[in-house]
């Protein structure tokens, strides 16, 4: 059935319609279509996707209902300060992090005006601060909540993961269960996302530490992504109390046993697909060269030895875009979309989107719906304009999609059929 759906998508380029009513935007979308945005909203870095072959037209194909996914977007909450991540509790309440260091809760669509007490102090400079929030798969039994954040000072900081107990009102028993062993300077490239695997372990993405001229141990800090004794530029796999599982890929090597994959620049989108048992990661390039990677244990994703990106100055980072022993990305975005937040849609509410990836874009200010074939190759993309920097996208337990926008007055936006 998926094959049939996908072949239908590939066989047509259909039209798109967009209509705004107040703060609700109704989008009628054909599979495979690409939006032509009004000139005033085209981002400075234009999406690297060609415009639609068809001029928008009211002439709808007769089988549009089988190939199109109609949806509308609604702003649920406003007034969030640079929200970064969201997670649902079993009772339906949502936890939302704000990068300056607050954990908020939304119950029945209403933001509690008081932040949740007990969040550890964070280093909130540049890209740093309070980042991911993740709820233990067995929260109903153990009430564990996990936070990722940058800790320290401008001169010496690092990404940490803390586990805390949440009683519905405040955090308690806050314990740091993981941290990057090396301190770094500046406010760049902390990562960080957490995703749970079916075996009860978690993956956590850690950034490479920063751009030139930032150095560590006598070389550019980005080189740490290839250093198997460093946690910078990695995906780590951890037990739920922070230790390294005994079946991690490098436990018997001269390496940090938490490392699961390496050669990453800065992953801010990480998702597990329960339909295929695949792990997907979106990674920021420097200038261009953002990546979607199919992440697998023990693999080297190449940064900074191979890359499609250039220095922000325009200079060359590497002549090589691919090399034996290093895994090529499944998708490269140049110009950069600045990907953050990643969801695999597994619900039933958007039937045409089942199995698709949704990647947020900070610079592109949109969602990218990514259609995959059975082998995990990208066969099509659709731009869903949001109009603000998209920091996170998630599927809710009831099968809708939610988006957080990275603004001083950030929003929680719901997509529904
Ligand atoms: Ca790569």
Please provide a written account of the structure.
This protein has one domain (72-409): TolB, C-terminal domain (Neuraminidase, 6 Propeller), CATH 2.120.10. The protein is built from 3 helices and 28 strands. The protein has helices at residues 2-11, 64-67, 139-142, and strands at 17-21, 24-30, 68-80, 83-88, 94-98, 102-107, 110-111, 130-135, 144-152, 157-166, 171-179, 194-196, 202-206, 215-216, 219-220, 234-238, 259-262, 267-273, 278-283, 290-295, 331-333, 339-344, 357-361, 366-372, 378-385, 390-395, 401-405, 410-416. Residues 291, 301-303, 329 line the site of calcium ion (CA).
List the helices and strands and how they pair.
Layout: H1 2-11, E1 17-21, E2 24-30, H2 64-67, E3 68-80, E4 83-88, E5 94-98, E6 102-107, E7 110-111, E8 130-135, H3 139-142, E9 144-152, E10 157-166, E11 171-179, E12 194-196, E13 202-206, E14 215-216, E15 219-220, E16 234-238, E17 259-262, E18 267-273, E19 278-283, E20 290-295, E21 331-333, E22 339-344, E23 357-361, E24 366-372, E25 378-385, E26 390-395, E27 401-405, E28 410-416
Antiparallel strand pairs: 1-2, 2-3, 3-28, 4-5, 5-6, 6-7, 8-9, 9-10, 10-11, 12-13, 13-16, 14-15, 16-17, 18-19, 19-20, 20-21, 22-23, 23-24, 24-25, 26-27, 27-28
Calcium ion binds near residues 291 and 303.
